[in-house]
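Database export, one record per block. Field names are fixed; values are copied verbatim from the stored entry.
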Amino acid sequence: IHGDKNQSERDYVLREFRKSSAGILVATDVAARGLDVDDVKYVINYDYPNSSEDYIHRIGRTGRSDQTGTAYTFFTQNNSRQAKDLVNVLQEARQEVDPELNRMAMRGGGGGGNWRGNNKWGYQRNRNFGGSNSHNKFNDY
């Protein structure tokens, strides 16, 4: 699903996805809000959005209705100006914050919690609303 498709084409793709057993949908930010799809287990953010609010909406596709879900986000040094906002989002959600992300937030500037907001860091974040602990991990690629 992407912005170059008209609304009827997007609706068709979404209907087919809901019927499919394949369970993989590739989408741009056009799918970040307003989609109601049950039982989404994973969201993969190939790029970190321009704002933390958009990030929250993107990962909100998973972990609904007392279900658990996992969101993976490639967060690079190029995103370091948004690191402080991401740390605040994770802390607000009572998620563990990786020490490297904290260091990046301290070095990289960025906002102070206003919820807005090809290098070697891959950022993985597990989002779990079922009450279990979630984990963040930086991987060196």
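Remark 1: Residues 1-25 form one domain.
Remark 2: Residues 7-19 form the longest helix (13 residues).
End of record.
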